[in-house]
Every structure is written in C-alpha cells, then in structure tokens.
Amino acid sequence: MKKGIMNNTRPLICKIVDKWEECDDTFGFVLELPIKIQKAKPGQFIMLWIPGVDEYPVGIAGIKNGFIEIGVAKMGVGTSAMIDKQKGDFVGIRGFFGKPFKPPKNVNHLLIGGGFGMTPLKLLTSSLINFEEMQRVHIFEGARSKNKLMYLEWLENLENQEEIFFHVSTDDGSYGYKGFPTVDLEKFLQNNKTPSVIYAAGPERMMKVIFDLGKKYSNVIDMQMSLADRYIRCGFGLCAGCVVDPTGWRICTDGPIFNTEQLEQITDFGNFRRTETGAKEKI
Amino acid sequence: MSLETNLGDIKLKNPLILASGILGASYSSLQRMYDAGMGAVVTKSIGKNPRSGSPNPTIFALVEIKSIVSSVGLANPGYKTFKEDLVKLTEKQTPAIVSIFGETKEDIGEIIEGLNDLPLLAFELNLGYSKENPKTVQEKVGIIKQITNKPLWVKLTPDECNVIKIAEAAVNCGCNALVAINKVKAMVIDIKTKQPVLGAKKGGISGSVLKPIGVRCVYDLYEHFGDKIPIIGVGGISKGEDVIEYLLAGASAVQIGSAVGVAYPENMVRFIQMGIRKYLREQNIENLDEIIGGAFK
Ligand SMILES: Cc1cc2nc3c(=O)[nH]c(=O)nc-3n(C[C@H](O)[C@H](O)[C@H](O)COP(=O)(O)OP(=O)(O)OC[C@H]3O[C@@H](n4cnc5c(N)ncnc54)[C@H](O)[C@@H]3O)c2cc1C
Ligand SMILES: Cc1cc2nc3c(=O)[nH]c(=O)nc-3n(C[C@H](O)[C@H](O)[C@H](O)COP(=O)(O)O)c2cc1C
Known about the structure:
Chain A has 283 residues and is an alpha/beta fold.
C-alpha cells in the first residue's frame, strides 16, 4: 500500500481509540488508521465493517494524523453493533469513496443539515475554517429536540470565532428556534444578498425542500447536497445498486455530493430510491 | 477497419458487452454503459421473486491482484418489477440481454413468458448458482426454447467439473451462444479479526486473476465446438489486448464486468476500444473475423 493513500481494497482494520455519546442514540468514534493517511475530503464516506455483522456507509467527520472521526446514529442491527463496541475493539473500513463538496471562493457558505448528515458538515466546517478565501460560514442545524442535536457544543464554541454563525432549531422548541431549519435559512436568504452556496446533508425530503427554496433566490449561486438515503453495496461504483434515474449516476462514485445542475437532472431526487433488491420505492 | 461482430443472427457494432451484475441494476445505468460505447448490455440476473441477497460486505476489491471478491446472493427485484426498467431500456432500442436464473424449469419458464413480449436482443441463462448437470441444463434450455424464438445464451461457470458436457447439453437443446466464464469460487478471511470478510462468508472472484482461466475455458470450447456455436469470452478483461486474446482463443465477442466498476466507466470503455484498434492497425487487420480462433491456425 502506497504511503498516504487509501487504496480501494479489502477492509483496513482499525482500532477504536475513543468513543463518546454525541447525543441521544448517536455516538462519536475515533479510529486509528494502521497507515498514515493524509486526508479525506469533506463529503466523502467510508464503508464501516463490523466483523461478522454488517457493513454500511458512514460519513467522515474528521481526519488528522492517522486518526479518523465518525459519528454513528442507531438505526438497526448494524449501527447498534457499532454502538456496542468499546475502546480497543477493532472494525474495518474501506474508502475513501465519493465526490466531495467543492466550495468556491468568495461566497457565503451556508451549511444546513440534521441527523447523521451533520458528520460530513463537521468536516466541511473544519476545512472552511482553514480555507484562505473564507467568507462567512453559517451553519443551520435542525433536530426533533435538543437531545438529538449533533456537535452542539463544538458548534457553539466555534461561534465565538469571527465569521462563523450557528443557527439552531428544534421541532419541539426545546432548543434554539422552534421549527424547521429551513425557516431560518429562508429568513437569512431574504435579508442577505451576497452570493451564497448552500451545502446540505440530511433526510432527502428535507433536502428537496431546501433545493426548491434555494432556487427562488438568485444570490444562491450553487447548491451541493449529499444524497445519503440510498442503499450502498460496493461503495466504488461497480454494482450500481445506488443508481439514480434517469441519469445513471451512482451515489457512491458520481455522488454522494451533487450540485444544482446535476440535481435538476435527477428526477429520483426527493422522490424515489432503490432498495436492496433493486426495486424502486417512494422516499 | 471495423469492430463489428456477429453472434449467430445478431450483429453487434463492436464486440464489447457489459457483463451481468455490474452496473446492471437499473435501466439508466445500463443505458449509460451502452452510451459509453458498449456493443450491448446484459442486465443483472433476474429471478422469479424479489431477493435482498447476501448481507454486506458483498463486494470488495483486492487491489494487489486487480480483482474483486463478491457474493451478492442474486439480489434482484423479481422479473415483474424489473420489467418496468426493461421497457424503458428497450424503448430506446438499446441492445439488451436479460440474464435470468431459476431453481426449477417452471420458474424459468414463468420468467421467460413474462418478458417475452419485450424487444430484447437475447436471454442469457445464468447457470452459476445452482448445482447443474447435463440433465438439468437440458430441461432448462429446453423449456426456454419452447417458449421463445429469441436467441438464448447460456453462461457457464468454471466451477462445474465438466464444462464441456454442460455446454454440449445446452448446444444440443438449441442454445444460440455460450458465455464463459462466471466467477470462480473464492473467499477472504481477515486474520486480525479471524472473520471471513464477505457477509455470506463464501463467494467468488472476478477481475484480472480470472483471465487465464477464462481464456483456457474459451479455448477448450472452441476446440470442441469450432464454428458450430458462437462463444462470448468473459473474465478479467481490462484492456484491448485482453479482448484480442479472447478472440484468438475463439470468442466472437466478450463481456466486461469488474474493469468497468470504477469511478469513470466511460473512460475505461474508450481505453479498451483504443487498445483493440491499435492492435488491429499494427497487425493490418480489417475485421475481427480474421482473428477469431486465430490461436488454432
Ligand atoms: C453516503 C452515506 C453516508 C452515511 N453516513 C452516515 C453517518 O455518517 N452516520 C450514520 O450513522 N449513518 C450514516 N449513513 C446511514 C447508515 O449507512 C445507515 O443508517 C445504516 O446502514 C443502517 O444500518 P443498520 O443495520 O443499523 O440498520 P438497518 O435496520 O439495516 O436499516 C435501517 C435503514 O438504514 C438503511 N441501510 C441499511 N443498510 C444500508 C446500506 N448498506 N447503505 C445505505 N443505507 C442502508 C436501510 O435502507 C434502512 O432505511 C449514511 C448513508 C449513506 C448512503
Ligand atoms: C458483483 C458482481 C456481481 C455479479 N453478478 C452476476 C450475475 O448476477 N449473473 C451472472 O451471470 N454473473 C454475474 N457476475 C459475473 C460477471 O458477469 C462475470 O462473469 C465475472 O465477473 C467475470 O468477468 P470480469 O472479470 O470481467 O468481472 C457478477 C460479478 C460481480 C463482480
């Protein structure tokens, strides 16, 4: 294996070196990579292998000096098995897969998400902070209630820095604005006319709402969205189980991040996905 | 110079066919591969009922030997649901072959009947997954030929101990082309966690390691059948030279799987075609007929 590069090959076995409860039913993990890998780009994902149980895609929340941070939200057997793991246990990863977010220079960066969608947005935030031509970064996070908000403390601490703004909302009003994060986003777009790019990651139905909203504002020059509501099998574009119609693009290699121009062409966006069998179902 | 090739009555604009199970899950990915320059496309294997397939991991690469280990467990939506994709695909006149599998001849008959009204190029019978012998093959091929006038290709697996006997049974019952080969049995065990990596534990291997095995199988078939039946070579093709090698062994066309399962499949198809053209130019060959079975001359 070449130094510094993660090859697409069998799962690379990593040791869990840190684990914490991020919020309700969601845990953060740091994995120690057996080789020194330089970096992953925000928006890319890995296939996480819980030996003997399951393998599934998870986003990358952070990467530094041979350590990778992920966040796992409890869904079913596979994610529960990861949450049951402890420091010192081993899991496998394959990756890094997918096309990343591509932030342009000299714009407002508007990040909006919820649930495990916050993991790629965390890495994107970290990288925007180091981005030379960084303009303002606005992060809109939404969740059902306060105990479902990921990275709350981290984001609130960031807000003390200049040019970073954190807008938080909950459906039940237990923290921040009461309502959907899209309400805050729309208010922002109404009052702010500088060129902006929206980056979204979360449930696809929510992203469709954001997409339709963004199209109404001419200062939104691009929208980049992570389509993660799809079953992923191989992760590197071979099986095409995650394909979207009618373009034939694969979420795992042509995505998961798609821009406005691409999203316009994907009629499945916000409407349909394929299940494990390959049958289409309504999202 | 022409890349056209014939498989019995079927004429293809070039000898490259997308292999079953790779990028074959939806009409849109199949269409994409045809638009990328494939001569025809084969769907993933479709059965009677929907199947979720094996638990993940189902597919991963072994980069050091440019190969893929997999066990998808025939995940498919069932022929009734998949028909919607096939309608969309054939509306555009895309030359499509539907790969089918079935435990019994009754299941197979039902699938063929259900899809027979579509303007498909051919059916491909995947024999790779149930224990076959010449008798079961005869029954399956027989029932398909009773129901449909469409060409039938039979795909062989090298794991069967007597490939020639199986092939003979298929040819005697009227199959129109032989496809060789499917994956070879394989598995990988992680030594740190002491676990088989595939969710299904056991699977098969495809990609570069398969090429000499596939070439040998095609050579054996051509030696046995000669021009009696067209052969389609599959296994480990990732460049123009590999295609030429299969043609020399006796294949009239080839299928490509693992090599196009990459980030930019369009580039891969172009690269393979360029390699074929380069060879033909250098060897002063006008059309592919001149080299098919060339290793026997
Ligand atoms: C690109 C991408 C990035 C993701 N990032 C994260 C992340 O950072 N953190 C996180 O917690 N989750 C993430 N997910 C979702 C995560 O993969 C699923 O929650 C997980 O697979 C559920 O597995 P399970 O066995 O616990 O649940 P199951 O009970 O098996 O399934 C629950 C739900 O998860 C979906 N699912 C199951 N297997 C897969 C699979 N192989 N691929 C995609 N969806 C699947 C099912 O369709 C179902 O809707 C991401 C998904 C994608 C596609
Ligand atoms: C992930 C995967 C799934 C496959 N699924 C099928 C299938 O459904 N039906 C079939 O006949 N062959 C299937 N195959 C076998 C291929 O069609 C082909 O015969 C084999 O991979 C060798 O060709 P290659 O080396 O070019 O990949 C599959 C192969 C792979 C890697």
